[in-house]
Amino acid sequence: MSKEIAVIMGSSSDLKVMQGALDILNEFDQAVHVEVVSAHRTPFAMLDFARDASANGHKVIIAAAGGAAHLPGMVASATDLPVIGVPINSSNSIDGWDSLLSIAQMPKGVPVATMAIDGAENSALMALKILGISNKELALKLSEHRKSLKEKVKKMNDDLK
Fold first, then answer.
1. Which end of the chain is more exposed for a tag (fewer CB within 10 A), N or C?
2. Whole-angstrom Cα distance, residue 88 to residue 96?
3. pTM surpassing 0.90?
4. DSSP line for the chain
């Protein structure tokens, strides 16, 4: 099975947050490539990953990073694939705000779709929506997922009564 979605992290400590994305991708039966790729500690490996991502069968990259959070932007600068950035509230972060701003404030021409701080689940759903544009089966699963969210809200309201 092709691993169309790659989830990369600046550190293995980011897995605590990114497990939420992996759980969502698993629910949708998506094979996923997971790897630690540090923009600062392994910059050449990061560039190799970004340049080779498409050839390796990836179609969307989710990149999570805390602190200075350069990983999503640097990967986006070296690939034509869509990159979804997840700012992590890590031990070396200022409540995640520095990470959020590092990812969101990309220069013109190098876009990164930026999620909320620790927004792993939404990063997975965004990646699935991107793939769903050309995958009708996946688009149908996403539609069913959205309907289930409506049902959850209906149940919440019923429980209030």
1. C
2. 6
3. yes
4. ----EEEEESSGGGHHHHHHHHHHHHHTT--EEEEE--TTTSHHHHHHHHHHTTTTT-SEEEEEEETT--HHHHHHHT-SS-EEEEEE--TTSSTTHHHHHHHH-PPTT---EE--TT-HHHHHHHHHHHHHTT-HHHHHHHHHHHHHHHHHHHHHHHHH-
**Distance of alpha carbon 27 from alpha carbon 17, whole angstroms:** 17
Please name the CATH architecture into which domain 5-135 falls.
3-Layer(aba) Sandwich (3.40)
* pLDDT tens-digit readout, 1-15: 579 999 999 999 999
